[in-house]
Amino acid sequence: MLVALSPVGPVEAERDLADDEFSCPLCQHLVVLKRGRVKIAHFAHAPGADCIAVGESPRHLLAKKVLAEQFRGLGYHVELEQIHSDGERRVDVAVWSDKSRQWVAVEVQDSPISVEAMKARAQLDRRAGFLGTAWVWTGRRFDLLLPIQDGAEARIPPEMRWFNNRYKAGVFLLDAPNEEMWWVQFGSAGREGSSYDWYEQGGTLSGVDYPGRTLVATKRLFPERVSFRLEPIESPWHKPHKPDWGIVFTP
């Protein structure tokens, strides 16, 4: 985790942060500031903690730190690991949108996640007052889709297909070590049909036709590097009385 509570309030982990007594904002358990030379500075729970914030990967921590730095560089107000007022969820990076005058949630996903879990998180964010949720993939999902040439094919995980189908916006991949955001759009991939002929016993010509088909999970990929600037977009299901905003990164 990158944020802990100190006697004077929330603080972000930094190598030069003064020694103090820190606790987890979620579970109030004691946490220790780690200043490793390889890993980024972060807080780790002391033994005995039972908390959803235990065991974050170094890759996930780095992604959150890079996002926060890039957003702040663009002039956004940012809060790392903002906790919903009811304590139900912790947003990886919360960004204040001057355009919409609302917070947007940015979620880093570096491992597989079910579509139902994505829907549940996005719904919790909306109920907590967030305009919408931006999804950023790293880790194995990044390795699956990048680096890749324009038009190459890959099998797209269900959660990525759901986001693309919901907002018609492709998906966004973070190369955290190089501080780059990539937008990958999907194109249809298909297979041509085929026909087979043969002669039955007695000389009768027979055959079968297999029609061409469009593949559901496999898509053609078109990657493009984009900025870290955020933009809300309406989904096809957006209605004034039932808003459905997606949050995307702009070129």
From TrEMBL:
Domain Competence protein CoiA-like N-terminal, residue spans: 19-51
InterPro entries, alphabetized: CoiA-like_N, CoiA_nuc
Top-level taxon in the UniProt lineage: Bacteria
Domain Competence protein CoiA nuclease-like: 56-130
Protein name: Competence protein CoiA-like protein
